[in-house]
Prior knowledge:
Elements: E1 17-22, H1 34-44, E2 50-55, E3 67-70, H2 75-88, H3 90-96, E4 100-104, H4 106-109, E5 114-117, E6 120-123, E7 130-147, E8 156-168, E9 173-180, E10 188-193, E11 196-199, H5 205-208, H6 210-221, H7 232-246
Parallel strand pairs: 1-2, 1-3, 3-4, 4-11
Antiparallel strand pairs: 5-6, 7-8, 7-9, 9-10, 10-11
Helix pairs in contact: 1-6
Bound molecules: glutamine.
Amino acid sequence: TNAGYPAPPPPGADSYLRLVWVYPDLLSTYGDRGNLLILARRAQRRGIPVQTIEVRSDQALPAAADIYLLGGGEDGPQALAAQRLISDGNLHRAVNQGAVVFAVCAGYQLLGGSFFAKGAKCAGLNLLDLYSDRGPTRAVGELAGDIDPRLGLPPLSGFENHGGRTHLGPGVSALARVTTGIGNDESTEGAWRGHVLGTYSHGPALSRNPALADLLLRWATGTNNLAPLDDTWSDRLRAERMAAVRV
Ligand code: GLN
């Protein structure tokens, strides 16, 4: 169903921004799907027509969409999602054509070369030069960091919950330097290369970080002229969480 979503565009319309929610049946554990709603809403409020497409893991991914979103997941669904994305192949095709990918936690880990799930090493998609192993503790709690200055964003504010640790290779840049929490390895958090960006920041990632949502929209639309929006509520949430982590 499409309940709560913008109406799909008429057949043949190709001027829509196409947002793909990848595998809601496997990668939707922490309400990360809210990121889809936020991107759709922020685009529509700028007058950009949007099509949201939810693709279950038994369906083929479209190769020609603009933004692909991958959420968090428990180990079993995460391993299955990686296998199906590898055999599908269209996420690779989309990235090669310049599509934007925003991936959270399990979705982020599976973009690398390998990750651990249920004690077993699993092949990832090799879309980012990184791999994940298991850490000594589970990382649960507030996550904050100073974002790579080249991205021109205010500090990242988020919440993390993962057992994995992620190690970056030379072909990828850290999204942020950790100021609170663990992120990849207690020093860096997330990764990006080109238009592919991953983070350990969960469910409310884009509601807490509207500037990050707008970065993804700028990448996808190729325009730097997005009208400012009223982000009072996001700003309040950010201020509240940032104050909480300083205590
Ligand atoms: N299963 C992965 C881990 O624990 C990812 C968890 C998640 O998406 N929150 O590291």
